[in-house]
Structures are given as structure tokens and as C-alpha cells.
Write a structure and sequence with these properties.
This protein has ten helices and eight strands. By secondary structure, the chain is α+β, with helices and mostly antiparallel strands. InterPro entries: Kinase-like_dom_sf, Prot_kinase_dom.
Amino acid sequence: DTNILPSSSTHPDSLSKFPNSPVYRESWDSVRFVVRVFFGDIQEVVTDRGIRCAAKTLNLPVQLGDKKETKTKNIDEAIKSERNLCRLRHPNIVRFLHMAQPEPATVVVFMELLDGRSLERFIDNNKPLDELTIRDFSEQICRTLLYLHSRQPPVIHRDINCSNMIVCADNTRIKLIDFGLSIKLEQSVSRHSAFPESLKGTLSFMAPELLGIGTSECEQYSRESDIWAFGCSVFQMASGTKPFSKVKNFWEMALDLYRRGAPALPEGRSAEFQDFYSRCTAKDRSERHSAEKLLEHEFLRKKSDSQH
């Protein structure tokens, strides 16, 4: 698994000591390397304030060159807007502690440590998941999306997928991590709003409109594209594989989406579940249900003792 946060316990006492201050004064020391991620890595660190946390370092692949001033300004603006992540407080969202910019094209995001494994790894070990588990996880994710999408301005995750969700150690709680910051930062220095090469890691979770399907040009990330990506995560929970896992490149993916839309769920799933999935993955984004509406869907409202 290449996207899991450290399997360590959070230290709430050390976090509460400095709730409104940066997590460090001048420096931090790496305790251990955790994992390499898109544009960088995650390390477990201890700061000079005695706070143990996760530090995700992003090294943007940009040549500042002649337009250094403009690109640096764009990066600064993107980081400024993303500092709002540190204000998020929800039981299903990793706590963002601080965001630093030690170099013009380097960003460090400090987050709480989590004890758990990615949903992708959880699926690999238990695939496919039964409907009771899928219902429980889906309800948690929908409540989280409702919280994000209802904020002013709305918080768009931009990178919903099973490797960006952590199943906590009790195997019952889901936490959303990695809010597509690397995508937004790269867009801030690129002319291409949704250029396929820059989104390799999340291609199979990208909504049709982000690929220019059904629109005159590629759309920006939105509440609806988050819902589509959530639907793709539901597919992976139900099937054990990523959607569009057999396509080889961007163009195959776009053609497959244009012709067939979202892949069908495996046979044997309940009618309520099939309908719920279809509401997440409507090709026309205006027909997708909002997180609020999905929470009212019969699939999520079924009693916990109903059929698997």
C-alpha cells in the first residue's frame, strides 16, 4: 500500500497544548519515513514544540524560469486558500495542523497521526465487502462530504479514492485524508486545468466532465465530481477492483466513459444498492445526487439488521 498514513497513535495531549499556534517554532526532526506519495513523501516527525505528527512534503515539479514571480504568487495563493483545511473539525476527517512553505515550490502539510490502513488495503484483505459494511462506510463518507460541501465557500476534496480514506484500527471508522492539494498546487502553475498526465494517480476516479465528456471543455472540480469519485469508491468496495482497471491510457478511459458510462456493479447486489450507486455515477453531473440527498436514500436508511 503506497498511500497509508503512519500506523501510530495520535497524541491528543501534545496537540491540545498548541491548538492555535504553528506546530513548530523553527524546525522538526524526522522519526521515520512512512511512504512515498504523488510529488513527495510522508514522514513521522517530532517538532521543536514536542509535537509528534505526520508531515507530508510536496515538491512541485515546476521550472519557475522566466515566470518565477507569477508562478510563485500562484503557489502562494493556492496555499493561502488551502489553509482553511486546518479549520476543519469532523470525526471522519484527518486533522490538519499546519501548512508551511520552506521553499517557493515546496509545501509541507502537518497532520495528525492515524492508526489504521487505507480503505484500498482493507478491501484487498476482505474483498469484496458485504453490503452492510459498504452501507456503513458509505454513510460516513456521505456525512463527511455533506460537511465539506455545505461550508462557505464549499470545500471540494478533488481526490476522493480508496487510497485517500483510512479505516481506523477498530475497523469501523473511516477518515478522509489528502485533499487533492498536489492537484490544486500543480494547477496553480500550469495552463492545463485537468491535463491527463498530471492526474495519472486518480484517472480511474475522474468524473466525465473533468475529461471533457458532455461539455465543450474540461470542467473544474466540483461537488458533483466528488460525488462521482465517491461512486467509484463504492464500486471498488463492491467489486474488489478499481473502476476502469483495464484501460491503458487517458484516451481509452475517455472513450469507455463516453460509450458506457460508469461500470456496472457485480451481479447479486440488492436493488437498493444498485440504485444508490447509479445516483452517484450519473454521466450528466446535474443528475447526480448531492451528499444530502444520498443520505436520504433507501440504501443508507435500511436498518442495520437488514440483509447483507
